[in-house]
Amino acid sequence: MRLAFMGTPDFAVPALQALAAAGHEIAAVYCQPPRPAGRGKAPRPSPVQMEAEVLGLEVRTPFSLRDPAEQAAFAALKLDAAVVAAYGLILPVAILDAARLGCFNIHASLLPRWRGAAPVVRAILAGDEETGVTIMKMDKGLDTGPMLATVRIPIDRKTGGELTEELSEKGARLMVEVLADLSAYPATLQPDAGVTYAAKIEKAEAHLDFSQSAEQVERQVRAFNPAPGAFFEIRGERVRVLRADIVAAHLRPVGVGEAGVVVDAQLTIVCGQGRIRPTLVQRAGRAAMSAAELLRGFAIPPGTRLA
After folding, report:
1. Where in the chain is the domain with CATH 3.10.25.10?
2. Beta-bridge partners for 84
3. N or C, which end of the chain is more exposed by having fewer CB within 10 Å?
């Protein structure tokens, strides 16, 4: 097929690679423009742009697709289909209708659960037991189009990064399978029941809230690993928590305001219900380390209250 690929972050790279390896003609790759990054704030191309350039593909980075000139340039590609994976821009109807077969989205959830921007993180935070990937034909709604195929995977204790990587690989393979024989994957309307929305993540959500249960705090730790990184504050410094274990899940604080207090030399912290024990942490500007390594050079004695 003659395709356009539309994606921006690491999540989309395996799909681009898989489509190219399957022999599809990729007429153009669309991704968001380079963004300032690093200490010098120099513009940095997205992961998809860098991979497309390695593959020798034409890259287009419009700030919007609402411009009639951009829409005409897209239509001029004479596409069979477009494949979209975490592109990050709204596709106007003129874009959705330009390709002969339409636009197909690789969405990292089991639709209609977790439509929207952050399905992986929201699934972990909600304590879902499983998630997956849905291949969907796009319409003008927010992830509301008919579904062609899904694959399910257990969440277990995977981090946001681990789960995203797994979903990325499975979604890439599933997209190739669907395009190989569209007739084998009839479109099915999404049910009205079970719709939830995965709102965009705000950085403040990564601030660990020890008034919650230890189970919920541990979900925060996993959901925000690797980015933006769950954290607590002590003596004016942020300490990121990358891994943590739940300790005494049903134990409640014995005193008012005890949540957030360190209770032993292993950095066990009181929560609204249960205790949490960080096992992998990171100070600003430092490499990740075990909690024991942290405590050897950065004292956090029992009785310390973490913010």
Report:
1. 203-297
2. 6, 105
3. C
